[in-house]
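Encode chain A's predicted structure.
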Amino acid sequence: MKHPRLAVAALAAAVLPFVLHAAEEGFTPLFNGKDLAGWKNPYEWGKAEIVGDEIHLTADKKFFLVTEAQYSDFIFEGEVHLPEGQANSGFMFRCHVEPNKVYGYQCEIDGSDRRWSGGLYDEGRNQWLWPSQKGRTKVEAALAHEAESQAHFKKPEIQNALKRNDWNHVRITAKGNQLKIELNGVLITEYTDDTDAKGHLGIQHHGEKGQTYRFRNLKIKTL
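Encoded structure for chain A:
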């Protein structure tokens, strides 16, 4: 039988690397679990409330709850739980905020059978960046890029990355013009774009009446 002190020492040795790793990660929580300090709703509609360790969004029209602070290069992590039925959400990043308007980069959370979760959408501007729909311009190079991106989103690991009735973990890395999105540990998007170098973060309610979108564990590490 192992001596109790040796057992404790072995357990400490096993746990310590994980504790140190967590401390070294350098992430800062974006939600304090008590109130919405650091967040704002730029819309005249939409409701955000705290339920336990979650932020719940309800609305009859699409709106975004956004951070007051702006961020440039970072790693963002967060979790989202979609409601049952028709649902669509997303995480805005490096986005721009005006009264009743939010636009810019968005990590798509797609609850439909299309399964484009983890894709990159340009909210309020150019729409889909990845998977690309720029083939609509009928330019040969754009058509090839669109075909490549559509094939990418048909891969089984991409199609099945979203857990439709559970919590989903999102990790967004923005460094210079390099943008990367991971969903539940699956790399979905790697994209190069120079449009926005800095902006707000945000969480989305898509506007389905009576539906509640849930978010938790929102945090950021600046690079």
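The chain has three helices and 15 strands.
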